[in-house]
Design goal:
With 105 residues, the chain is an all-alpha fold. The chain has helices at 2-10, 22-41, 46-72, 78-104.
């Protein structure tokens, strides 16, 4: 949820022409991470939960890429992207660990 808040703040720094491009994609990807975790947790099997955790990881990778694209295009400076990139990495590690635990039964 912290990552979602940060993403909603940083997309306000993007140029107006990106309002319906990168901004929308980044917000959707960020919201998708906790949404997939929550939906998967409510499923009845570990297999289903792992599937949704995998989708959350994919959304995290998508968001990380979009943040880096913004940096390369000069839309966002490093001081704005360091925290969301750190959180993306941390979330990915936690999701991977949880997926491993679920596989072990």
């Amino acid at each position: 949820m912290d990552l979602v808040e940060i993403v909603y703040k940083i997309v306000k720094c993007l140029p107006k022409e990106e309002q319906y491009g990168l901004s929308d994609q980044m917000r959707r990807a960020a919201v998708s991470i906790p949404s997939n975790i929550a939906e998967g947790q409510q499923r009845y099997s570990d297999k289903d939960f792992k599937h949704f955790l995998s989708m959350a990881r994919g959304s995290g990778a998508e968001l990380e890429t979009q943040i880096l694209v913004c940096e390369r295009l000069g839309y966002l400076l490093e001081d704005l992207i360091s925290e969301p990139l750190r959180l993306c990495s941390e979330i990915n590690r936690m999701l991977s660990g949880l997926m491993i635990k679920l596989s072990q039964g």
